[in-house]
Design goal:
By secondary structure, the chain is α/β, with parallel strands linked by helices. 39% of the residues lie in helices and 15% in strands. The chain is built from eight helices and eight strands; from the N terminus they run βαααβαββββαβαβαα. Strands 2-1-3-8-6-7 form a six-stranded mixed sheet, with helices on both faces. It has a two-stranded antiparallel sheet with strand order 4-5. A hairpin with a 2-residue loop joins strand 4 and strand 5. The longest helix has 27 residues.
């Protein structure tokens, strides 16, 4: 068994051919360089990080990197901004294109899907395939964060583990992982399939179709920005606890960084 960690919504790059169509005013306001990369990337440990670039989930990106380092496993990051295209949604979704992507023509949107959407899906599928050449099955942890309030109400959890309830291995892993967190880091509230359900992610759904339940376990790790977006010792402890409890649940070697 091996683990693959990904982050789909933390990218901040803009393809050069998209950036070139922006007006000088847009470039000044958005900080787009000629190379198509957002300049002046903010401190991802700052308060409410992930909002500074509109839809870019920078604290989810940082958490994915930290979990990957703690578990000593591969991490794939979507480099392109979700303000262009959201790779977690099906291509037929009305919300697959972000605010910037909706400004493009049909031909340009098709190019965007090819260069930023399908290319990322192929990278993740190839990574899973490569892992399965050496291991019996792979646990795919997709990391993102969520705003702690929605439609006038607060979302009451610190971490959500999202999965397809029809896949027994996914359900069992999340239940056991939550138990480990409860005993090792009891003040971190973790809920299953909250604030959304884990069977709605198109990327995970495609991978579940491609690989059997005995080969592929897909879990979304959703972190509340109320704590995950703030630099603090407790934040670092919480992410470390999530990683260590995951390792314990999966029976991985205990020689993790202290």
């Amino acid at each position: 068994m091996s683990i693959l960690i990904t982050c789909e919504l933390g990218g901040f790059r803009i393809p050069e051919w998209v950036a070139s169509r922006d007006s000088a005013a847009d470039r000044s306001a958005g900080g787009i360089t000629a190379g198509g990369i957002t300049a002046g990337v903010p401190d991802v440990h700052g308060p409410w990080c992930g909002i500074a670039f509109g839809e870019a989930d920078l604290c989810g990106r940082e958490a994915a990197i930290q979990l990957s380092s703690r578990l000593q496993v591969p991490c794939l990051l979507q480099p392109f901004s979700p303000a262009l295209v959201d790779v977690t949604r099906p291509t037929e979704s009305r919300r697959v294109f972000g605010a910037r992507g909706r400004q493009l023509s049909g031909t340009q949107q098709a190019r965007l899907l090819d260069e930023c959407y399908h290319s990322y899906w192929r990278r993740v599928e190839a990574a899973v395939t490569q892992i399965l050449e050496h291991f019996t099955f792979v646990v795919h942890l997709s990391v993102h964060s969520f705003v702690p309030h929605r439609k006038g109400r607060f979302l009451r959890t610190d971490v959500g583990l999202l999965y397809d309830s029809s896949r027994e291995h996914e359900s069992d892993l999340c239940a056991d992982w939550i138990d480990e967190v409860y005993f090792e880091f009891g003040n971190l509230r973790v809920r299953r399939n909250y604030p959304t359900r884990g069977d709605r992610n198109a990327l995970h759904g495609k991978l579940r179709q491609r690989f059997s339940a005995d080969q592929y376990v897909g879990i979304e790790v959703a972190l509340n920005r109320w704590w995950a977006g703030r630099s603090s010792t407790r934040r670092e402890e919480a992410i470390a606890a999530l990683a260590d409890c995951c390792a314990e649940t999966l029976g991985l070697p205990s020689s993790l960084p202290s």
